[in-house]
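The instructor's notes for this session suggest beginning with a concrete chain rather than abstract definitions. Hand out the sequence below and ask the class to guess, before any prediction is shown, which regions might be ordered.
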Amino acid sequence: METNRPYVILPEERVPEGIENCQLCELSKQRTRVVWGEGSPGAPIMMILDNPGAREDREGHAFLCGTRETLQLGMREAGIDTSDVFVSYLLKCRPLRAYNKPEARVACLPHLQMQIMQKRPLVLFGFGNVVSEALLPDLEDASVKSLRGSWLAYQDTPIGFTYHPLAVRRRPNLMKFFIEDLKALNEKRKARIGK
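After discussion, reveal the predicted structure:
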């Protein structure tokens, strides 16, 4: 695997007016700020992670956390260019301590749904069980393990799922599956562009 190319800090998208002060869940009391998403605003692929990770070091300089580094490594191996991707989050705030997870997910989901409607990506791709279970609550088994390799629809857009980049980082044996799923995502993107 190629690891010597530099990783990219994707540009953040500005938070819509009024949402930067969102008070819908208890994360508003612990967050540093609202993070709306990052990457190319009109990208054909919208990737969905559970929540933003650390974005600045202690000195306030932007840096690439382990999640984003592993994600970009997988994308590179799968032939996905960063210009084809917008990364969004189920939760728009980085949790700093324990919180009521179900309540926060229900409160924040409409933000993500609005974002998907506005951006109209060609393909959606979720990472980890938190995202799959939140987006597909009516499925009996919405685990990534059972959903990998299949395509469903969310808001009339094809959606696929794979392991969370941090799970892949902790368990390197998952990397081959992670790359396989990202390659399938890239093929789906190509097919949707060609339709």
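Then share the key points. The first strand starts at residue 38 and ends at 39. The mean pLDDT is 92.
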